[in-house]
Amino acid sequence: MFKNLKYILFTSIVISSLMLTACGAESTQDAVIQTAVAQTVAAQNAGQIQNTETPPAPTEPAVPTPAQSSPTPLAGVATATQPLNNAASFECGKASLTSETVVDGTIFKPGVQFTKTWQITNTSTCVWDTNYKIVFFSGDLLGGGYVYNLPRVTGPGQTVPIELVLTAPATDGEYTSEWKLQTPDDYMFGVGPYNSPFYTKIVVSSAEKPAYSVTSIVSSVTRDPLSGCQPANILVTVYATVKTNGPVEFTYYWEQSDGNGSNQKKVSIASATTQTFAREWKFGRTNTQSPKWISFIVTSPTQMEQRQDFVFECK
Question: For the chain, which domains are there?
Fold first, then answer.
């Protein structure tokens, strides 16, 4: 009985111990499980936080870019900082010199004021308005301004007089003043096929009696008719244009290759000018067809000669 009681008591104690152990182990296991769950949740939360950020783009290796140097602008080529005049301006910049006053080489006293006039013809297809300019180009300004407005509207084929009031310098010598025209967008142009400047040339002399004289002779020839042998007489005319630099008196005569000529004549010129003289020579179908010439000869105050060669042909 006692043994049974003892056994029963022992068994109860063992069972109680086992139950207590089991409870403690379960508590410990539960704590471990709870800790693991918490860590897992924390790790998941951390992963969720990281996943809310945009992942960085993968970095590609840098590729070297070739150096690009700015080309050096060439003369006459348009650049962003050096615009050229367009084709329209070029087409508008066409002109010719029809006539002029104050012949080249005119002698003036120092400080004398004079008016130089060029008759300029618009040979373009544009209308020049008063925004076009007359601009000083080179040489001696001769007391004028650097820029003037075109005096009036000038259409294609029309001629505009360009008049400048200039002044002879105070020092003796030879002076040249060159000018050009300019479109409203600054394209500068002159006259003729080479866009040459139109100009004036003067001589300044303080001498009491300047050396006025014939300064040049220019000749030309015409034939009527231009070709053939009709009518019976063919007329050849030689022209001699004489230029003087002031009031002068001179003598001249004609001479031609067949031995015929003229008597001497005296001419008085009141001021610097040009004057043209003419000599006619008639030919018939029976005349010798060969090279011929006519000369214009100045005998005083200085000796000068201008010979015009031509060929008479009848065919």
Answer: 93-204 (2.60.40.10), 214-311 (2.60.40.10)
Phi/psi of residue 81, each to 5°?
-105, -5
The DSSP annotation for 91-151 comes to HH--EEEEEESS-TTEEE-TT-EEEEEEEEEE-SSSPB-TTSEEEEEEE--TT--SEEE-S
Q: How far apart are CA 278 and CA 204, in angstroms?
A: 32
The string of pLDDT tens digits covering residues 143-188 is: 999 999 999 999 999 999 999 999 999 999 999 999 999 999 999 9
Query: How far is the C-alpha of 244 from the C-alpha of 34, rounded, in Å?
Result: 128
The Cα-based distances of 221 to 89, 227, 255, 278 in angstroms read 38, 14, 15, 9
Peptide bond into 225 cis (omega under 30): yes
Pairing of strands 159-167, 113-122: antiparallel
